[in-house]
Design brief:
By secondary structure, the protein is an alpha/beta fold. Helix content is 41%, strand content 18%. Helix 6 links the parallel strand 8 and strand 9. It is globular. Bound molecules: 3-isopropylmalic acid and manganese (II) ion.
């Protein structure tokens, strides 16, 4: 397996080192060769060279690797976030990674901000459409900078785009023995674009007899995620709503530091990254929580068909988190590196 690793900026560098450590431990224990190639792209590279990625960068990532792993991108020296958009959103769009797979899984009741909720109440997955919606950057500004300014940002919904993400959500439910899929849109206000989501969702629902299909407007979804998260197994929604509800989901599982994600095009080279950003003020301080990064690495292995390796990482993470062996923001006393060591050792010390 050949994996491109882009640690990126800020704490992305810190947490990626731990994800790499854990990947190596899992590879070693299971005798799975993982060829991790470190790539330098990020703020420093952009400032030195003036480019985010080389001209053939996306094709190289797509054709030369089985998967791509990214730490985090964003640096105060590049206020317009140009390089971050090119690398992160660019990879999503250029490689057509249409599924943003974001698990919301509480490992320990102690970490949930909701009263009297435990791991059985917070265990679902959000599928966020990842290649269209409000993220296509179609629009323009007229009379910019004046009091007559008009700013237009179009939302694109295509039959192909909506169909493939909704289908992916149903297929995931079917193949994982899940019985419920909830679609969230804003079709009561956005009566054009989101009518397409309605049509496609209810149409596909008829093809999945054993799965209960439900719908919530996205405002009601956020309310229900807080009120009764246990009702959800699979949520599917558009790009922007998915961005917002997965930050909410991250908090339900104990914070952004724990949240993992995969940007997928099933059957093609896909990209994995923790949900959190580069948090420049914590960079290099050995305080960032590497768990979201490590769980993203596990998601990557699972996607690559290495489910035993992935399960071993997930089990080791769960033991560490439940045992209080983690960083300060989840109540532990360990640093970034020590958390990574603890999880890697737990994997290597278990004989299989
Ligand atoms: C995410 C991030 C990105 C997004 C930003 C950095 C453009 O918030 O991955 O959730 O909005 O998709
Ligand atoms: Mn986000």
């Amino acid at each position: 397996m050949r994996i491109a690793v882009i640690p990126g900026d800020g704490i992305g560098v810190d947490v990626t080192a731990e994800a790499v450590k854990v990947l190596r431990a899992a590879g070693q224990v299971f005798g799975t060769p993982l060829d991790l190639e470190m790539l330098p792209y990020g703020a420093d590279y952009y400032l030195q060279t003036g480019i985010s990625l080389p001209p053939n960068g996306y094709a190289m990532l797509r054709d030369d690797f089985d998967a791509i792993y990214i730490g985090a991108l964003g640096d105060p020296r590049i206020p317009d976030m140009r390089h971050a958009r090119d690398i992160l959103l660019g990879t999503r769009f250029e490689l057509d990674l249409y599924v943003n797979h974001r698990p919301v899984k509480l490992l320990d009741a102690r970490l949930c901000p909701l009263k009297n909720r435990g791991p059985k109440d917070v265990n679902f997955v959000v599928f966020r459409e990842n290649t269209e919606g409000l993220y296509v950057n179609i629009g323009g500004r007229f009379k910019a900078g004046t009091e007559d300014e008009i700013a237009i940002q179009e939302e694109i919904n295509t039959f192909k785009g909506v169909h493939r993400i909704v289908k992916h959500a149903f297929e995931h439910a079917k193949t994982h023995g899940l019985t419920k899929v909830c679609m969230a849109d804003k079709s009561n206000a956005m009566t054009q674009g989101h009518a397409l989501w309605q049509r496609v969702f209810w149409d596909l629902a008829t093809q999945y007899a054993g799965i209960e299909a439900t719908h919530l407007y996205v405002d009601a979804l956020t309310m229900q995620m807080v009120k009764n998260p246990g009702q959800f197994q699979v949520i599917v929604t558009n790009n922007m709503f998915g961005d917002i509800v997965t930050d909410l989901g991250a908090q339900l599982q104990g914070g952004l530091g724990l949240a993992a994600s995969g940007n997928l095009h099933p059957g093609r080279t896909s990209m994995f990254e923790p949900v959190h950003g580069s948090a420049p003020k914590y960079a290099g301080k050995n305080v960032a929580n590497p768990v979201g990064a490590i769980l993203s690495a596990a998601l990557m292995l699972e996607y690559l068909g290495l489910s035993n390796e992935a399960a071993a990482i997930e089990a080791a993470v769960k033991d560490a988190v439940v045992g209080g062996q983690g960083t300060a923001e989840i109540g532990g006393t360990l640093g970034t590196r020590e958390t990574g060591d603890y999880i890697a050792n737990a994997i290597t010390s278990k004989r299989r």
